[in-house]
Amino acid sequence: MTTAFDPIDLAGARLANRIAMAPMTRSRAEAERRIPTRLTAEYYAQRASAGLIITEGVQPIAVGQGYPNTPGLHSAEQITAWREVTDAVHARGGTIFAQLMHAGRISHPEVLGDGLHPVGPSAVTPAGQLFAGPGMKDFTAPRELTGDEVRETIEGFAAAARNAVEAGFDGVEIHGANGYLVHQFLATNTNHRTDEWGGPVENRIRFAVEVVRAVADAIGPERTGLRISPANRYNDIAETDTDEVYLALVAAIDPIGIAYLHVTEPVAEVRDLTLALRKRFSGTFVLNPATEGPTGPEALGLIEDGTADILAYGALFLANPDLPARLRADGPYNTPDTATFFGGDHRGYTDYPAL
């Protein structure tokens, strides 16, 4: 019987186990240059026993930033700073992918600075507010991307992927979930376009497919992953044809031969679709399952019964950097301090050594 503690081949790379650290925004980057810090290197190196680390969301281009103090991969300084992180993880035997996240309309001019304005597939204002540094701000209407700008954005993802490899990452994950730009193209309430990028399902999935293809062409499909979150309503997303969209999307990307598909389940009711996507995708299947509270040891059976090849753990990794060992030993577990999730360094936990 296969378990979460068995090694796995990920498109030619041997992972020590089937436990991934899920991407989690931390807002720790140096504010002006959007570069990771020494604390970032320590944070990821402490968690290098994960079979796969997927970083926090990293903006591929400047206008893709969604939150204050998040890092980028679009400047020489950022590449150099990320090298310290990847070197630290590799020194401890880990494998690390950068998550490329373009926030699209989930941003604010005060976050972006430099005269930039949030963009999206259509000029549809999100409901709610965003933390923009000094306080909460109402969302503004994004500027609709032109056709040429859509193509430029796709190339921005590819360029950031090349930068990631130069920075020492083992690969990249394209963030197509949680209401950010790729997801905005998929959903009918955020994509009102009438050109080749909107309307019927085959057009609404086109942006996601073209981003995957461009990144795979730039750095190799074996270094490319995609994260999706079917039926997720986060960031004011409303999907009217979830099953049709995601089955079509996975069918379209499967021939590209990417390293993995990462599905995050917002609710347990999508499990039937998860299983259908698992069947349709021929590569490695990573699952962040729907659970009550942080994903815990009870999810390990999803590897044993074949639901997933790799399990992605999020919040529990914050308080338990050596999580694979604790899962194998069935604890003990520290409780994540969610009150300081953003920016907190979690050094208050004393039962694991600092670097």
Write up this protein.
This protein is an alpha/beta fold. The protein has helices at residues 38-46, 76-91, 109-112, 147-166, 181-186, 201-204, 206-219, 242-253, 271-280, 301-304, 315-319, 323-329, and strands at 8-10, 13-15, 19-21, 52-58, 96-100, 119-120, 129-131, 136-138, 143-144, 171-176, 224-228, 260-264, 284-288, 310-313. The chain has an eight-stranded parallel beta barrel. Strands 1-2 form a two-stranded antiparallel sheet. Helix 4 (147-166) runs parallel beside helix 7 (206-219). The longest helix is centred in the middle third of the chain and has 20 residues, at 147-166. The chain starts with 7 loop residues before the first strand and ends in a 26-residue tail after the last helix. The model is unreliable at 342-355 (pLDDT under 50).
